[in-house]
Amino acid sequence: MVQSIINKMYNSSHNNSSAPSSPLNPPSSSSPSSPPRTPSSSPSLASPPNVKRKDGPSTSLANDDDVLPPPSKAARHLNEADISNQTRGHSVKNLPSEILLMIATFLVRKDVVQCMLACKNWQHALCLYIWTEIGRNQWMNPLFPLVDGKIDDDVSFDHRRRQVRKLEWSENDNLNLSSERMATMLPLMPGLKKLSLTAAVFQAPRTLLSVLRNHRLLTMVTSVDLHLRQFDGEDALPVREVVQGCEDLEHLGINGTWFRDETQQEIKAHPGFWKIQSLSVPRTHLGLLYRCPDLLALALTSNLTNEVETDIRPIAQCLKLERLKFVGRVGFAVDGFAAVLPQMRCLTLLVIDHIQQDRFGQLEGLRDNKNAPGLKGFELGRVATPVQAQELLTEVNQAMVISILRARPDLTNFKLKGYTVDVFRFFSLEEDGQSMPSCPCPQVRELWLEIHGALEVSADIMQRNLELTYKQVSRIKSLQSLTLKCTRLDASNTSGLNFLTNATKLKELRLSNPSGHVWSLSEITNLMEVVPRLQILDLMPLTRQDRGKVNKYFRDRGKGFLCF
After folding, report:
1. Where do the segments described as Disordered lie (predicted)?
2. Where are the beta strands (DSSP E) in 317-429?
3. Which of 422, 499, 503 has the alpha carbon at shortest distance from 465?
4. Tens of pLDDT along the chain (564 residues)?
5. Which of 114, 224, 262, 464 would give a disulfide with 75, using CB separation of 3.0 to 4.6 Å?
């Protein structure tokens, strides 16, 4: 199998030797394992149109003729003798870099690792194209070569570590990596761009922080996430001392108790601004905003157990802010939100993970479209445990949300999670169902809505509610992603999926209906004929057997389709 893949790509590269190189098809001179060639003879291979990778479904559609055989069986039982026999005439040392790139891209990571374990030549040939991103899945892989005790005396792996661009590290027993080991690994990763560190509760982060403070190691890093706890008896450090060596830092995410805000005296003593464009920080530490005038994205997290009112007026310093998120289970406990809104001229996305019903009054300023005039995305939510029932949005708060939507007809993203809405009130329908005004968000592309179904409401009324919801949703011609959750319904049947006949741009569909209606394969296939762009489908309830049939049905037709 490997030989057929190599021969097909090798012959294709020589037949198309005049094709120019591209970022996905680098010239062979970039690979140390292939001899240099002139640009005129450098082959170039196009990427497979429907290559399936481990990290998710393919992103493009292709016909069956364009897809090579599944690679997962190609290197399952390979050893050094197999590879030597199969690649006879095409030494791995002489393979063009484009061929090696295609092998590493086409095969799943497990098979590439098997190839690398065959011999030293395969290790050095493929090390440029694997382990560029190291996360939890790689640390837990028994074949992963960078864990403790395996490579202390093997210098051949040093070359591989130099290719690492993204490193996610967590200090715990499962990952088997100590702080001391981390200090010796970072200097061997000069090309590191993204770094994420998480330490356990009772372990001191001093060793890690001392590594980060060495500016000679992390000058190329553009993204840093630090979730560390403070060791007992140690003083918190200002963030400036830790990331001062990251000259090109664009994203910073911090959490825990290891850091503190800078005082005004420290800011005056060490003036200067950062290039940070994305910041994730606890809402109680907003002093960093004074050093980030070019901030584009801000996430205010909360790891508190009690609701504490926070003054967010320092956000007004960030005049270029485009995305603002309030993350956490504590709630929308902020002060000064109404005062900050007029300053957010560039805001395009507002996300509030958890807002209590008595806090909706703080959203009053959003009714005026002069505040945050460029707002395109609006997401509200309520964090609830699985045992908690869905909470119906009060009439006053539902009127508040509807008025905000009608004041912003250009809104393209609206999500309301955790709160159910009354269909008639949300869509401004009369009780007799005769009045059908325009939807409050006619230009929305992504819609998430949960429909209220009270226990005392009859099945006929709830069936009518659902049908009216379908009818209103079908009027949104620009819809690309739809999520409808029907809670506490007792309807015996539904109107099927025919309501989406006008949603020709729909790509993602999620419907949850615990009424007992089981979506049939014929309904789903009819939907795919009407909505040909659909790529992600999540229907509840749907049995595992039916889900497998749906995935197989569209996989056999070469469509990049995923059914949950």
Report:
1. 1-73
2. 323-326, 334-335, 349-352, 377-381, 391-392, 413-417, 419-420
3. 422
4. 455 555 555 555 455 444 333 333 333 333 333 333 333 333 332 333 333 344 443 332 233 333 333 334 444 444 444 544 554 545 676 777 677 777 777 777 677 777 777 777 777 677 666 667 777 666 666 556 554 444 444 444 555 566 778 888 766 544 545 666 666 677 777 778 888 887 654 454 566 677 677 656 677 888 888 887 765 556 777 888 777 777 788 999 988 777 887 777 777 777 777 889 999 988 878 888 888 888 999 999 876 555 667 778 888 888 899 999 998 876 677 778 888 898 899 999 999 988 888 888 889 999 998 999 999 999 998 876 655 667 888 889 998 999 999 899 899 999 998 888 887 778 765 544 455 556 788 889 999 988 776 655 666 776 777 777 777 887 888 889 988 887 654 433 445 566 777 777 888 888 776 555 566 777 777 777 777 777 787 777 667 777 777 777 777 766 655 655
5. 114
Helix, strand, or coil here: 145? coil
If residue 99 lies in a helix (H) or strand (E), which one and from where to where?
helix 97-106
Those residues with Cβ within 8 angstroms of residue 487's Cβ, 6 or more apart along the chain or in another chain: 390, 420, 450, 451, 452, 453, 514
Contact 208, 228 (CB under 8 A): yes
Question: What region, left, alpha or beta, does residue 476 occupy, with left being phi > 0 and alpha being psi -120 to 50 degrees?
Answer: beta
Q: Tokens at residue 315, please?
A: 């956000």
Residues 187 and 180: their CA atoms lie apart, in Å, by: 12
Residue 284 burial class via C-beta count within 10 angstroms: exposed 0-12, middle 13-18, buried 19 and up: middle
Query: In 343-373, which positions are buried (b, 16+ CB within 10 angstroms) versus exposed (e)?
Result: bbebbbbbbbbbbeeebbebbebbeeeebbe
The answer to whether 125 touches 92, Cβ cutoff 8 Å, is yes
Check if the beta carbon of residue 44 is closer than 8 Å to that of residue 13: yes
CA distance 439 to 403: 12
Q: How far apart are CA 528 and CA 196, in angstroms?
A: 40
Cα torsion 564, 554, 480, 531: sign: negative
Domain spans of the chain, in order of start? 2-129, 157-260, 425-564
197, containing H or E segment: strand 194-199
| Residue linked to tokens 């093997």 | 154
Cβ neighbors of 447 (< 8 A, separation 6 or more) are 414, 415, 441, 473, 476, 479, 481, 482, 483
- Give the 3-state secondary structure of residue 423: helix
